[in-house]
Amino acid sequence: MPGTGELSLSQILALGCALSMNNIGIGFSASITGLPFLPASVSTFFCSFGFLAFGSRLGRSAFLQQIGEYTDPVSGLLLILLGLCQLYH
Fold first, then answer.
1. For position 1, what pLDDT does the model report?
2. How far is CA 16 from each of CA 4, 34, 68, rounded to the nearest angstrom?
3. Is residue 53 within 8 Å of 78, Cβ to Cβ?
């Protein structure tokens, strides 16, 4: 639903799939380094939910509400920066 700030079901599913694919890479990395499966999975699960909750709360902050027209470019830039960080580290 463009312009409403809400995601459609198809957008939610696409985002969930993208985040899950990111976790596959984390799983491979944990396996290669010899980390046990269960603690790595549990910590990834809780960290993912924690950061999603933090980001959702931050997104509703008064500061970000005031700069609403810039949130799309800023979020895109943040995703690009995160991708570059993962690529080069």
1. 45
2. 20, 27, 24
3. no
Q: What is the mean pLDDT of residues 68-78?
A: 83
Sequence-ordered list of residues with C-beta below 8 angstroms from that of 69, at least 6 positions apart, any chain: none
Q: Three-state secondary structure along 5-73?
A: CCCCHHHHHHHHHHHHHHHHHHHHHHHHHCCCHHHHHHHHHHHHHHHHHHHHHHHCCHHHHHCHHHHHH
In order of 27, 34, 89, the CA distances from 31 in angstroms are 6, 5, 17
Mean pLDDT over all residues of the chain? 83
pLDDT class of 69 with cuts at 50, 70, 90: confident
Return d(Cα 78, Cα 39) in angstroms, integer: 28
